[in-house]
Amino acid sequence: QLQLTESGGGLVQSGGSLRLSCAASGLTLDYIDIGWFRQVPGKEREGVSCFSTGTDSTYYRDSVKGRFSMSLDKAKRTMYLQMDNSHPGDTATYYCAAGSHCTYRLLWSPGSWGKGTPVTVSA
């Protein structure tokens, strides 16, 4: 059973940087699709980025392209989301996820989820 635990959320000023971490236990992240979602209260959860093992590609939603970057440290079984040049619109609870069928549309349904870490970007 794969378990995911996020950390690294907090308060950052607009234009600042934050790095979110997602540690995996139970299984490795080497051969499955991984990614990040975010959700604001009252709104639907939205895909932020994902890596597809099938295409060996990483996809990002348009609003974070050039500012966010996801990566995976296989040895540490930890994925990361580097958030640079943050905007107040990035304020949300961020969730890491793993599963299959990550696509460029970021409309996928991972089977494993973390519990989330809150990020607040102040103006």
Mean pLDDT: 96
Low-confidence stretches: none
Count of helical regions: 0
Main beta-sheet strand count, sense and barrel state: 7 strands, mixed
SSE class: mainly beta
The succession of helices and strands, N to C, reads EEEEEEEEEEE
Helix content: under 10%
Strand content: over 45%
Indicate the overall shape: globular
Cα(first) to Cα(last) distance is 40 Å
| Extended strand count | 11
Whole-angstrom Rg: 13 Å
Summarize this, please?
The chain has strands at residues 3-7, 10-13, 18-25, 33-39, 46-52, 57-60, 68-73, 78-83, 92-99, 112-113, 117-122.
Overview of this protein structure:
- By secondary structure, this protein is an all-beta fold.
- It is built from no helices and 11 strands.
- It has strands at 3-7, 10-13, 18-25, 33-39, 46-52, 57-60, 68-73, 78-83, 92-99, 112-113, 117-122.
- Strands 2, 4, 5, 6, 9, 10 and 11 form a 7-stranded mixed beta sheet that branches.
- Strand 4 (33-39) and strand 5 form a beta hairpin.
- It starts with a strand and ends with a strand.
- 32% of the residues are buried.
- The model has no long low-confidence stretch (mean pLDDT 96).
Topology:
Blueprint: E1 3-7, E2 10-13, E3 18-25, E4 33-39, E5 46-52, E6 57-60, E7 68-73, E8 78-83, E9 92-99, E10 112-113, E11 117-122
Parallel strand pairs: 2-11
Antiparallel strand pairs: 1-3, 3-8, 4-5, 4-9, 5-6, 7-8, 9-10, 9-11
Question: Which terms would index this structure?
Answer:
mainly beta; 11 strands
